[in-house]
Amino acid sequence: MIKEIHDQSTEILHSLYGGDAVFREGQYEAIEATLTHRRTLVVQKTGWGKSLVYFVCTKILRNQGKGVTMVVSPLLVLMENQFEAAQKLGLHCEIMNSTTKSDREEQIQKLKDGAVDIVLITPETLFSDEIQQVIGDISIGLFVVDEAHCISDWGHDFRLEYSRLNRVINNIPYNVPVLGTTATANDRVIDDLKKQFGDNVYVSRGSLMRKSLSIQILKLSSAAERYTWILENVPKLPGSGIIYCLTQRNCDNLADFLKQNGINALSYHSGLDKEKITYAEQAFRNNKIKVLVATIKLGMGYDKGDIAFVIHYQQPANIVAYYQQIGRAGRNIDRAYTFLMCGKEDSTIQDYFIETAFPTEEEARQVYSCVYANAESGIKAKEIEKFVNIRKNRIDKALMFLVNEGMAVREHFVYYPTLKSFRYNKEHYEAVRAVRRREQKNMKELTETSMCLSRFVVNCLDDMTEQNCGICQNCLGYAEFPSKPDKEAVKAAQQYLNSIIIPIEPRKQFPNKDFIGGIKIPQPNQAGICISKYGDPGYGMMVQEGKYGNPAGFCQQLIDKSARELRSVVENNRITAITCVPSLRSTIVPDFAEALAEKLGLPFKVLLKKSGTVQQKEMDNNYFQCDNAWRSFSLASEEDLSDEKIILVDDIVDSRWTLTVCGYLLSQAGCQFVFPFALASSSQNGGDQN
Amino acid sequence: MMCSHLSEDTHSRPYEPAEWSKLAEKLLKAGIQPCDLTDLSDNDFLNLGIGNEEAERIRRLLERGGSLAFELEKYKSMGISVVTRADAGYPKMLKSKLGKSCPPLFYYAGNLKLAARTAAGFVGSRSADKNDQKFTEHMVDAVNRCGYIVVSGGAKGIDTIAGEASLYNGSAYIAYLSDSMVRRIRNKGVINAVRNGNLLLLSAFNPDAGFSVGNAMGRNRYIYAQSAGTVVVRSEYQKGGTWSGAFQSLKYKISPVFCWDNPSYKGNQELIKLGAVPITEEWDGNVSSVPESQEQYTQLSLFD
C-alpha cells in the first residue's frame, strides 16, 4: 500500500512538473501520512508547497473512488490561486464563498453527484444553512483545514467559525483523513491543535526561516516622518509591494498621499466596496501598481510570488502576525525587502486589542443573562443592546465567546442558551493574554535586538535555528536603505496630514421604533465634516489641549482652519446661521461656534438646549447613546426654522447620536438643511483591523 | 454511523435496529469489530455472506462519516450527545428487556447515570384533568418515597405532570422523547433540572424531528423497559398510545403494569381485566411488588 502511494504520488508530481521533479523535503512524507495516518498536521513556511500535499492526496483518493476533498480556508484571494493550480492537475474544483453565491444551486448538485474533486470553501459558507442542509448527501473523502492555527484560541488569529470546525473534526470517524496546514504555529498552538485532532497525529514541521527576506527596522515616531520615508524610498525598491497599516483610514490617507506625489498606489481593506477590492487585487496581481496599502485583510495565504517588498507602517500586534505578513514577500523571487516602522505611540492600540480580546467576566455574564432569560424564543444580538449598556462589538464578542464555550448556540442569527452552566474561565483567558503580551513584547524586542532579525523572528516561533540570514541590517552591519527621511520633505507631509478631512456620514435610522414610532429618520443630516482625529499630532492635539487645557478654549488656529474648510460649504449651500450642540459643563463649544460664525460672517444662534443627564461618552452602544441624546436635548424655542440652513457645530464626534438627535430636532422645527461639523473624531471606526 | 438517520439520502438507507443486530452478529462471529468495517474488501464481505448490494450500502453509509460529523457537532454544541449500544452508559434495562430490538443509539441530554437508577413509569393521556393531575402527583410522591425516580414520555399531560412532580420532590426524571428534543432543551426549567443532574432526556429519533404517531408509539416500549413497573393513569379503550403501550407490556411482560382503578375510565378497567394491577390513592408506590394472584390472572387472560 505504501509503495502504491509512493508510485502514484511520484507519477502525479512528474505529470505536473516533468520527469525530473522531486518532492521538497517532507512533502511526500506528509502525503503518505495523510493517506495512511488519517490525522496529519503540516507546519511549514510559506512557499513550502502545502497545497501540493492535498492536491496529490485528492488525485489518489479520487482514483480510488473516494468522495470530494473539502478544503476549508478563510481566504478568498487564496482560493483563486488554488483554483488555477487544481485545474492544472486536471481536478474539477469549485470555489464556495460569498462571491459564488449565484452558482450555489448548481455547485450543490455537482457535489451531491460526486462530480467535484476538490471544493474550496470558507467556514462561513460551510456552516451556512444551505450547505448544512445538504451536507449529509455529500461524501467527503478528505477534510483539509487550511490555516489551521485559526482553530486554536492560543493562536494569534482565532476565529469563531473555526472553533466549530474543531468540534467537527473531533467527530469525524477515522476512515476519513483530516489534514491541517499552517505556516504560523508555535509549540503551544501545535500542542493545542494536536489535542483537537485527536491522538496519534503526524506532524510535519520544517524550518521557518526564509532566507530571501531581509528585515530593516525604521525608528520613526511621527506619521509625517513615516509618510516621507515611504515617499522617498518606495521608488527605489524593485517591483511592487505591500504597505501594511492598522486602520482603514491609515490606508486611504497614505494611498492618497502617495498618489498625489506620483506613486501608483491603491488602498485595500474591507471597508471598500467589492468592485474596488477586485480592482485593487487584479491591479496588484498584474503589477499595474507599485504598492498596495492594505490592512491585514490582505493576509494569510495571499499568493503572489513576486511581491518584492513589505513595509509595516505600524508595528503589528505580535510576532506571529508579523512573521506571517512579511512572509507574503519573496515567495518566487530571490530577494525581497521588508521594513518595520516603529515609534513610541505604537503600543496603546496593541494593548487595547490584547486587553479586549476576550469579553470581561461582567460583559459575558450580562450578555449571558439576556440569552438565558430568552431561552424559549432566543434573542438577536441587536435586541441585547437594549438591555445592557455594552458596546455592540463587545456584545458580539461576548456572544462569540459564549458560543465558543458551548454556553450558547446561534441559529439564523438568534442565540439560545445550551444546557451548559455559565462559566468564565478566567485563568485560561489570562494565560492567553499573557502569551499575547509576550508576543507583543517580542515585537518590541525585535526592534532592539542585535541578533539576526530573521533568526530572532523564527526563534520566537519556536524554530530554534542558529543560522543567520546574512542580509538583514544586523547581519550586514549597516542598513541598505536610509533610516531617516529628509527634514524639509517631512514638513510637506505634515501639511498633507493637516489637510485631511474626516467625513461625518449622516445616520439614517434610529436603533428601533421606541423614538419616533418608526426607524427611518425623515430628513437626515447632510454629510458633514470633521477636521482631525482627536489627539493626533497637529489639529487633533490642539483640540485635546483646548478641551482640557487651563484655561480651556479652542485656539485661533482651529477657528481659522474650520473657517477655511467651511467657506465653500457656506457659499455653495447659502448657509444662513451657525448653531452648536449645547453643553451644561462649559462654554467652550458655544464660544468657539460664535467665533467661527463671526469669521464666516454669519449669525450665531442658540437653537437647542440641554437638560442635565449622564455624559454621552458613558453610553456604550447605539441604543443607550441614542436614548441618552434623545432625553438630553430639546429645542430652545418654538421658533419656526423653515428659512434656515444651518451648520451644527460640536467639538468631538464619536457615535454621531448627539449630532443626529440635534439635527432631527432642528428638522422638526422646519429647518431644511443641517450640516454637522466637528473639530475632532474620537470614533473607533477606522480602528478596526480589517 | 450505520444506523443514524441524521444524514440520510436516497441511496443509503440507514440500518434499522433489527437489521443492524443481524449484521453485528455476522461480524461478531467472524471476529470483526463494527469499526473495522471500513477496511473490508468486496471479497471480505462475500466471505461474511454479505452481497455486493449490501456491501455498497455499507460503504455509502460509512462514507457519510465526514458529513455526519457536522450534524453531531451541531447537536453537541447544544448539549445533545449520542450513546450507542456499544457504550457502557447505554440504558442497561433496555438491553436486557428488549434484546435485539432496542435501538442502536440514543440522543441524550442531561445526566446519563440516571438510566442506571430504578424507575417507576408513568403513562397516560395528553389531556389530563384536575383529578388526573392530583392522582398522578399523589402517586409520584408515593413512588419517590419508595426511592424510585420517574420515567415517562415527556409529552404534555400525564407525562409532564409526573416528571415535574418528581423533580419538585427533589427526585429525578427520565423522559424518552418521541420528538422535538432541540425545542425542549430551550426551556429554563429543563436547563436547570439538567444542570442539577436530575433530568435525563433520551430520544431514539433525530433531535429536530417533529411529532409522529409512529415514533410516539415506538418509544412507549422504552418507558416500560426502563421502569421496574409502570403506572397507567388514564387510558382510552383500544386506541391511543397509552392503551397500546400498556397492552404490549402486558402481552410481552416487559414490566408490571399498575392501573388506576377508576370506574369511569373504560380503558383502565379493560387493562385491569387484562392483568394490570389495580391501584387507588392508598397504593404504597412499590412498583416492584406485584400480588401473586395478579400474575396468574395476567397469563390466563392474555392468551385465551
Describe this structure in words.
Chain A folds into 4 domains: 204 residues, 3-Layer(aba) Sandwich (Rossmann fold), CATH 3.40.50.300; 191 residues, P-loop containing nucleotide triphosphate hydrolases (Rossmann fold, 3-Layer(aba) Sandwich); 72 residues, Arc Repressor Mutant, subunit A (Orthogonal Bundle), CATH 1.10.10; 181 residues, Rossmann fold (3-Layer(aba) Sandwich), CATH 3.40.50. Helix content of chain A is 42%, strand content 16%. Chain A contains 26 helices and 23 strands. Chain A is globular, with a radius of gyration of 28 Å. The C terminus of chain A is likely disordered. Chain B has 2 domains: 78 residues, no CATH class; 195 residues, 3-Layer(aba) Sandwich (Rossmann fold). In chain B, β4, α7 and β5 form a beta-alpha-beta unit. Chain B has 13 helices and 9 strands. The C terminus of chain B is likely disordered. Classes of the chains: A alpha/beta (690), B alpha/beta (304). Chains A and B meet through β5 and α8 of A and α3, α4 and α9 of B.
Tally of individual helices of chain B:
13
List the domain count of chain A as a whole number.
Answer: 4
- For this structure, the CATH topology of the largest domain in chain B is Rossmann fold
The CATH architecture classification of the largest domain in chain A is: 3-Layer(aba) Sandwich
Note the quaternary state here.
Answer: heterodimer
The share of residues in helices of chain A is 40-55%
From N to C, what is the helix and strand string of chain B? HHHHEHEEHEHEHHEHEHEHEH
How many β-strands of chain A, per DSSP? 23
Helix content of chain B: 40-55%
Q: What is the end-to-end distance of chain B?
A: 44 Å
CATH homology-level superfamily of the largest domain in chain A: P-loop containing nucleotide triphosphate hydrolases
Annotated CATH topology of the largest domain in chain A: Rossmann fold
Label the structural class of chain B. Answer: alpha/beta
Overall CATH architecture of the largest domain in chain B: 3-Layer(aba) Sandwich
